[in-house]
From TrEMBL:
Membrane topology: Multi-pass membrane protein
One Pfam family per UniProt: MFS_1
InterPro entries: MFS, MFS_dom, MFS_Efflux_Transporters, MFS_trans_sf, Tet-R_TetA/multi-R_MdtG-like
Domain Major facilitator superfamily (MFS) profile: 21-395
Transmembrane listed as a keyword: yes
Keyword entries, A-Z: Cell membrane, Membrane, Transmembrane, Transmembrane helix
Primary subcellular site in the record, as a coarse category: membrane
Compartments it resides in: Cell membrane
CDD domains associated with the record: MFS_NepI_like (cd17324)
Record-given protein name: MFS transporter
Transmembrane segments: 18-35, 55-79, 86-106, 112-134, 146-167, 173-195, 216-239, 251-272, 284-306, 312-331, 343-363, 369-388
Length: 397
């Protein structure tokens, strides 16, 4: 597979940089990840208020993730040449309404229905946002812009999920969802103000989308994504009981510790952004090995508060580089079809979040927490050989 340069109509590389737009899209990814993962810190209060178990409450993560996996390739297919600027604004409007509905939901089924709408917004927005770096900045700046866009992921772990957890603990979980709706409205206005027109010169087509499965680099990146993300969320969805029951940490400290996880994640994101441009397979290999080792060690070395906190920070540092590294992998593996490859990648990423949360929910209700961590670590570590086998592919070097 040789490296080629995509036509201008597909990449639409600008002569100047639109850094304000890059930052606005980063705010969007911040909101997406916050909306998707917010229930992780609210499983206990939501379950108590709506009379469901923590395992059932975990479906608030699983459902939007699976819906997002379907929406990621479907939305670009359906909208054709629609201006991506207007599409992102419309999806953020849907996110605003969906989170308001979540805040007001009087019963568990209605809350899950609202989370379905959240999934549509996540999948559609992320599929488009993941490919925007090549359209907003010159080619030499794409790795930096990609790191900024996916810096929103780490920022959500730093600010979004922990603050939501604190709001849910100090006030009410409904207030947390209501605040998220207000934030979505603010992001909508920002996107409308700073994004340039982004009409697709060559819309995503079913044939071009399916054709990405013939690309060995894309297939390897998708497999690595599936293993790493599924493994991570198998354990991380239930990080609160892990910290509380295995490490003996007071439940009131979970929010601040998730903040520390997110700070480490931001550092990991930009560290990956600084190294991934050269050889993304190496960065992904290091991430998979570090994540897998951390989760496998947790049942042994995380049985004290100090050990648990130390491993949590290492976990956050490693996972922080996942989105930037794997998105860069997709850009390099399919330089002539960035939006198509990104749509497939986002679909697999979100499906993996849902499957990981589902696997964790099944395990946490039937097995010891140690077994959940062992399963998660084994899945994540299995991605390392996949990354290693791509080292000779020229588009990924």
């Amino acid at each position: 597979m040789t490296a080629t340069h995509p036509p201008a109509s597909d990449r639409d590389t600008p002569p100047t940089s639109h850094w304000a737009a890059v930052c606005a899209v980063a705010f969007g990814t911040f909101l997406l990840v916050t909306a998707e993962q917010l229930p992780i810190g609210l499983l206990t209060p939501v379950g108590s208020a709506l009379s469901v178990s923590e395992g059932a409450a975990g479906l608030m993560v699983t459902v939007p993730s699976i819906v997002a996996a379907v929406a990621a390739p479907t939305v670009p297919l359906l909208v054709g040449r629609m201006d991506r600027r207007l599409l992102l604004v419309a999806l953020m409007g849907l996110m605003t309404l969906a989170n308001l509905a979540s805040a007001l939901a009087p019963a568990y089924p209605l809350l899950i229905a609202a989370r379905v709408l959240v999934g549509v917004a996540i999948g559609g927005f992320w599929a488009i946002a993941g490919a925007l770096a090549v359209r907003l900045v010159p080619a030499a700046r794409v790795p930096r812009a990609t790191a900024i866009i996916f810096g929103g992921v780490g920022a959500a772990n730093v600010a979004g999920v922990p603050i939501g957890t604190l709001i849910g603990g100090l006030a009410d979980w409904r207030i947390a969802f209501g605040a998220l709706s207000a934030l979505a409205l603010a992001v909508l206005v920002t996107l409308l103000a700073v994004l340039p027109p982004l009409t697709a010169a060559q819309p995503v087509g079913l044939r071009r989308l399916a054709g990405q499965f013939r690309n060995g680099g894309v297939r390897a990146g998708i497999l690595a994504t599936f293993l790493i993300v599924t493994g991570h969320f198998t354990a991380y969805t239930f990080i609160s009981p892990v910290l509380r029951d295995l490490s003996g940490i007071d439940g009131r400290l979970v929010g601040p510790l998730l903040f520390a996880f997110g700070v480490a994640g931001v550092a990991g994101n930009f560290a990956a952004g600084a190294t991934v441009a050269g050889r993304p397979h190496r960065t992904v290999l290091v991430i998979a090995a570090a994540l897998g080792a951390t989760m496998l060690l947790y049942p042994v070395a995380g049985l004290t508060a100090m050990g648990g906190v130390t491993l949590l920070v290492i976990w956050g540092l490693a996972y922080g580089g996942v989105s930037t590294s794997l998105q860069t992998w997709m850009i390099k593996a399919a330089p002539e079809a960035v939006e198509e490859a990104s749509a497939l990648w986002v679909a697999v990423f979100n499906l993996s979040i849902g499957l990981g949360a589902l696997a964790g929910a099944a395990a946490v209700d039937t097995l010891p927490l140690q077994a959940v961590l062992w399963l998660a670590g084994a899945l994540t570590l299995a991605a390392a050989p996949t990354a290693w086998t791509t080292r000779h592919q020229r588009t990924l070097r």
